[in-house]
Amino acid sequence: MSSQKIKYTDFIPDSIVQSILEKFVNRAEMGFNKYNNTLDRNDLSKLEWINHAQEELMDGILYLEKLKKEIEHGKEDPGNSKADSEA
């Protein structure tokens, strides 16, 4: 990524940690732009927050299962996906 959004003072993380931190910041910005809200909102109950988290985790499990099946069946990775260029 070309512009550093996170400023470090005493510790500079390795490239993997920095990449993940930048993805968190970008995701928070995208969420704010899309929903005009942040995680500091207080209009959801604890159960609603848990439901949101469960739904997100279920999506993640589905993505992992898809990839696992592709690996098990020896399906080739197309390699030039949008996600590859964002990493």
Structural class: mainly alpha
Helix/strand order: HHH
Radius of gyration over C-alpha positions, nearest whole angstrom = 17 Å
Shape: flat
- List the uncertain runs: none
The overall strand count is: 0
Mean pLDDT: 87
Secondary-structure topology with pairs:
Elements: H1 15-35, H2 46-72, H3 82-86
Written account of the structure:
With 87 residues, this protein is an all-alpha fold. Among the domains are: 14-41; 44-75. The protein is 61% helix and 0% strand. It starts with 14 loop residues before the first helix and ends with a helix. The mean pLDDT is 87.
Descriptive terms for the model:
0% strand; flat; 3 helices
Quick structural summary:
The chain has 87 residues and is mainly alpha-helical.
